[in-house]
Design goal:
With 406 residues, the chain is an alpha/beta fold. The protein contains 13 helices and 14 strands. It folds into 2 domains: 9-200 and 312-405, Alpha/Beta hydrolase fold, catalytic domain (Rossmann fold, 3-Layer(aba) Sandwich), CATH 3.40.50.1820; 206-304, Rna Polymerase Sigma Factor, Chain: A (Orthogonal Bundle), CATH 1.10.1740. The chain starts with 8 loop residues before the first strand and ends with a strand.
């Protein structure tokens, strides 16, 4: 039985103790605490740091939610175990940097850092934190934060940890937004930026996030965001999560898994309004699980940060922002992702390249939709480890995932 990889160490960095942490939207916080987890150790040159940026409901403990991305001597696969078909050609074209297994980060080489983002509820300052001005949780008084604010807080954490340059910054979804913001705002600190399933949200994405926040706000238990601890608007938050799960999956996957089957607990949708089809039972179950581990106000804050992501903010234009990038940028699209459609990522890759930054775009086939970055880890590992030469085809025999290089 596999066990969860534990961080080498965890801790909190407290910022803004002497002066407020000014936010892009005009608000401020004082103080600010950011939770971090570290896997592995910095080498003497301090040039082996990797920053993982988590998605909406993730935590600093990256190995808890992305375990397959890590390799340790005891967990590494042998060349015979790997599921990737190596390509013809010189070794330097088809493989790079070691580990033949499905993982990306080798803790004998890499020091992997992850922080819980500002506004979350897993240890960093967010709506559940105590507002020093009132002695009560911030709740709805927590200010609007942006991806830039989140990244600036992360940069302060890395300063405290003695990390000035990142070998890789990587993230998917809102984590990919953070990775791109890092490449723009701190160009001298990033060697390789990898953003998976991300781009500025389309009108459809904005619409879906709006509906999720409305579901929370319209729950009678929301009470303007001032619900007591342990009595949050579980109905609204659960519905918000169910809506989000629809955007994270694909129609193909839902048809394959659930089709029009009645709910597996024996309900008969023909006989009663309350009886559900299996897909509805799945969505309700996901909502029920989610409300036990996440906070409604934090959901509002983070989804709003996702909405407002725009690399042009603070610069004359997006093109001027992209010209700042010094890192090599790798964008990864997922064929069935309709929250961040691959054509939007291809367009972003073209704009980055047009601005003069080195950029490659890779797309892999998956029926898992946006959640492909979690479900098809072998494919992601092959892409971000560079185990194939650009503009070639590799195949990962995992749920028929196919990696396609543009």
């Amino acid at each position: 039985m596999s066990t969860t990889l534990q961080p080498t160490r965890e801790g909190d960095v407290v910022l803004a103790q002497d002066a407020p942490f000014r936010l892009e939207a005009g608000g401020s916080l004082q103080p600010v605490s950011i939770r971090y987890a570290i896997y592995g150790e910095l080498n003497e040159r301090r040039d082996n740091a990797v920053l993982i940026c988590h998605a909406l409901s993730g935590s600093a403990r990256a190995a808890d939610w992305w375990p397959e991305m890590f390799s340790t001597p005891s967990r590494a696969k042998s060349p015979q175990q790997t599921q990737m078909r190596r390509l013809p050609g010189p070794p330097e074209e088809s493989a790079r940097d070691g580990d033949p297994g499905g993982s990306v980060f080798d803790l004998s080489r890499d020091c992997v850092i992850c922080t819980n983002i500002l506004g979350s509820c897993y240890g960093s300052t967010g709506p559940t934190s105590t507002n020093p001005a009132t002695g009560q949780p911030y709740g709805p008084d927590f200010p609007v934060v942006t991806i830039r604010d989140i990244v600036r807080a992360q940069a302060h954490v890395l300063d405290e940890l003695g990390v000035q340059r990142l070998r890789i910054v990587i993230g998917a979804s809102i984590g990919g937004m953070q990775a791109l913001q890092w490449a723009v705002d701190y160009p001298e600190r990033v060697e390789h930026c990898i953003a998976i399933g991300t781009a500025p949200l389309s009108a459809m994405g904005l619409a879906l996030n709006h509906l999720q926040r409305q579901a929370i706000r319209l729950d009678p238990k929301f009470t303007g965001g001032r619900y007591p601890p342990g009595e949050q608007p579980s109905g609204g938050l659960g519905l918000a999560r169910a809506i989000a799960m629809c955007s994270y999956k694909s129609a193909e996957l839902f048809d394959e898994r659930y089709a029009r089957k009645p709910n597996r607990n024996g309900e008969d949708p023909l006989r009663c309004f309350e009886h559900r089809y299996e897909v509805a039972g799945y969505l309700d179950y996901q909502g029920e699980k989610f409300v036990q581990r996440f906070d409604a106000n934090a959901y509002l804050v983070i989804s709003k940060a996702m909405d407002t992501f725009d690399l042009a903010h603070g610069y004359a234009s997006e093109a001027e922002a992209l010209k700042r990038i010094q890192a090599h940028v790798s964008l990864v699209g997922i064929t069935s992702d309709w929250l961040f459609p691959p054509e939007h990522m291809r367009a972003l890759a073209e704009r980055i390249g047009a601005a003069g930054a080195p950029c490659d775009y890779t797309e892999f086939e998956s029926s898992h939709g946006h959640d492909g970055f979690l479900a098809e880890v072998d494919a992601i590992a092959a892409v971000v480890s560079g185990r194939f030469h650009a503009r070639r085809l590799a195949v990962v025999n995992n749920n028929k995932a196919r990696v396609v290089c543009s």
